[in-house]
Specification:
With 83 residues, the chain is an alpha+beta fold. The protein is built from 3 helices and 5 strands; from the N terminus they run βαααββββ. The chain has a single domain, classed as 2-Layer Sandwich (YaeB-like fold), CATH 3.30.2310.20. The radius of gyration is 12 Å and the shape is globular.
Length: 83
């Protein structure tokens, strides 16, 4: 499983999400940490691109994967709330 990292700015947006959007984001983030290549989409046409996107009903998330074993991290670069 990938460990999760994020900035303070991402945390502020995360904490301010309405309950339904927060639940949706957290559930999707959990799945992304389990298998980010399966549960996110690449930013480019390359399926193995480490820059990933998680597009949900209420949020859009930009992710950077660090996949250099033994270090496996999912870094949330930005989180945007879409009303």
């Amino acid at each position: 499983m990938f460990s999760l990292r994020h900035t303070a700015a991402v945390r502020v947006v995360w904490d301010s999400l309405p309950d339904g959007a927060r639940r949706e984001f957290e559930d999707a983030l959990w799945l992304a940490c389990e298998d980010p290549y399966k549960n996110t989409r690449p930013r480019s046409k390359d399926e193995h691109d480490v820059e990933r996107i998680l597009a949900l009903q209420h949020t859009v998330v930009a992710i950077l994967l660090i996949d250099a074993k033994p270090v496996q991290r999912l870094y949330v670069r930005s989180l945007d709330y879409v009303e």
